[in-house]
């Protein structure tokens, strides 16, 4: 019996777009499955930037947010030159981690292509140990934690 992970999109949702490159596709002419993790990374980066906390600023302060868990559910294929919308929300935030829910849609017809989540730990860049996010970072992100 499989358990369906929670992946609900909650406001506020940030949206960005990407055009599928030829190199993003596989021999079957569709976007290669692992490419969607890059798309979700782009969505997270834009989400953080729009919240006023570019990921680069975390790194400059000695923090990184490595991926510790991910899940993708493929619903329909994307192909070369498709314009895609990446929708991202911050589903959960704690002192030591954050979880983003994402959807990738075809911009032409709004068809859902992929949905999923990524979960990230807060790690000190120099020591590589689990480290709490600073209170000011939590304060910036807290208003963006999604509400159902």
Would you write up a description of this structure?
The chain is α+β, with helices and mostly antiparallel strands. The protein has one domain (14-144): Thiol Ester Dehydrase, Chain A, CATH 3.10.129. It is 20% helix and 33% strand. The strands form 2 sheets. It has a 5-stranded antiparallel sheet with strand order 1-4-5-6-3. A hairpin with a 5-residue loop joins strand 5 and strand 6. The mean pLDDT is 94.
Attribute tags:
alpha+beta; single chain; five-stranded antiparallel beta sheet; two-stranded antiparallel ribbon; 148 residues; 7 strands; Thiol Ester Dehydrase, Chain A; 3 helices
Order of SSEs: EHHEEEEEEH
What name does CATH use for the topology? Thiol Ester Dehydrase, Chain A
Weakly predicted, low-confidence segments: none
Biggest β-sheet: strands ordered side by side in the sheet: 1-4-5-6-3
CATH architecture: Roll
Proportion of helical residues: 10-25%
Number of helices: 3
Q: Given the C-alpha coordinates, what overall shape results? A: globular
Query: What is the distance, rounded to the nearest whole angstrom, between the alpha carbons of the first and last residues?
Result: 27 Å
Query: What's the β-strand tally?
Result: 7
């Amino acid at each position: 019996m499989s358990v369906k992970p929670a992946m609900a999109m909650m406001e506020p949702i940030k949206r960005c777009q990407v055009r599928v490159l030829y190199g993003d596709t596989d021999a079957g002419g569709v976007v290669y499955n692992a490419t969607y993790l890059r798309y979700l990374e782009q969505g997270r980066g834009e989400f953080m930037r729009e919240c006023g906390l570019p990921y680069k600023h975390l790194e400059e302060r000695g923090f990184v947010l490595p991926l510790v868990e991910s899940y993708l559910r493929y619903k329909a294929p994307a192909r070369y030159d498709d314009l895609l919308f990446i929708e991202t929300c911050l589903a959960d935030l704690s002192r030591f981690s954050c979880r983003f829910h994402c959807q990738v849609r075809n911009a032409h017809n709004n068809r859902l292509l992929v949905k999923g989540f990524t979960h990230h730990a807060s790690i000190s860049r120099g020591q590589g140990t689990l480290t709490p996010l600073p209170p000011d970072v939590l304060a910036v992100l807290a208003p963006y934690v999604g509400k159902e």
